Amino acid sequence: MADKASVFLLVTILVLVTIILVFAMKYFAALRQASQRIASDDGYRALADKAARAQETSTELLGAINSALTRIETRLANVEKVLKEVE
């Protein structure tokens, strides 16, 4: 009888330890996944900041190009006017 009781106790303890290990593995997997998601979100945030800065730079450069084009158009109009007067 004592032999059956010790086997029953051993099996019960092994089942409980297995259940605890399964839940611990699920917890650690969820924890690892959350930390990887945070790292990924930080990467996306840095990429978004970089894209915003690049867009601001592009806007500034486009403004400079636009003003240069306006000056060139003005000069071209003056050259056309002079050429028409020469004819």
The portion of residues assigned to helices is over 70%
Output the helix-strand order.
H
Average pLDDT taken over every residue: 93
Distance between the termini: 126 Å
Overall shape: rod-shaped
The count of strands amounts to: 0
Largest sheet at a glance?
none
Label this structure with key terms:
87 residues; mainly alpha; 1 helix
Description:
With 87 residues, this protein is mostly helical. 98% of the residues lie in helices and 0% in strands. The protein has one helix and no strands. The longest helix is centred in the middle third of the chain and has 85 residues. The chain starts with a helix and ends with a helix. The model has no long low-confidence stretch (mean pLDDT 93).
Helices and strands in order, then pairings?
Elements: H1 2-86
